[in-house]
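Q: Okay, next protein. This is Methyltransferase domain-containing protein from Bradyrhizobium niftali. I've checked the sequence twice, so it should be correct. Can you predict the 3D structure?
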Amino acid sequence: MNCQSATYVFGGNQNELERLLGQAEDLKPESTWLLDHVGIEKGWRVADIGCGPIGVLDLLSERVGLTGTVIGVEREPRFAAMARAEIAKRGLQNVSLVEGDTLSTELEKGTFDLVHERLVLINVPVANQHAIVASMVALARPGGIIATESWDRASFACHPEHRSWQVLNDAYREAVRSTNGDGTSGRTLPWLLRTAGVTGIRTKVHVRAVEIGDPRRIHRLGILDVTKDKILANGRLTEAEFDAHRNALAAHLADPDTLLIDQLFVQAWGRRPAIT
């Protein structure tokens, strides 16, 4: 196991690959806001850490233009293979992929105008979060931007409340904790940047009321499906109990009278200090 993270809790099967592609599309408005706000320029050299099968590679490619360079970094072989396929499929001529992580790749330090990660830190223990952010800072040029994005469950709720919502969320959080994930990492992003020496830190928080037909409405069901084996291995639920609760929750979320408030989506960014 490398220093970047423990075993990825969601696995690397086809369902997870498809979920990550869908998630990238779902989060495009929020990530577009961030990338537009930090002011990426044509010709920049940028990196997307833990890009998965696409991450924000397409958004970065558009912003830096053909005179710029985008490097995706991905340690999971299946995700890396899918990323290469997506890069080719979308004709992203200024994008390349490095297989590895920020702590083991041979990326040249101090050369990137922007180093970005989305939903990497949420899946690793705090000690590793510090190491990842420090490595991102090291990759950035003096004055370069470090940008982070993560979920925080502070706002996650449905109304009317439902027992299956509580039971399955408790079981999921236990499974995530068992592999070092943290559903509250969003609130720690500014602190992580500050402790790594990043300056001029800014923070933005997004949250949605998720309507029927929005893919985020059933996103938690997809997460439960890809973590089912881990949930069952923890012994909190039998398979029959899991399936019954999952079906009950699906029905509850399909009810237009159920209000679903999504998790906070937290963004924090700042700059590596310039050399004086």
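A: Here is a summary of the prediction. Residues 14-266 form a domain with the Rossmann fold fold (CATH 3.40.50.150). The radius of gyration is 19 Å.
Q: Noted. On to the next one.
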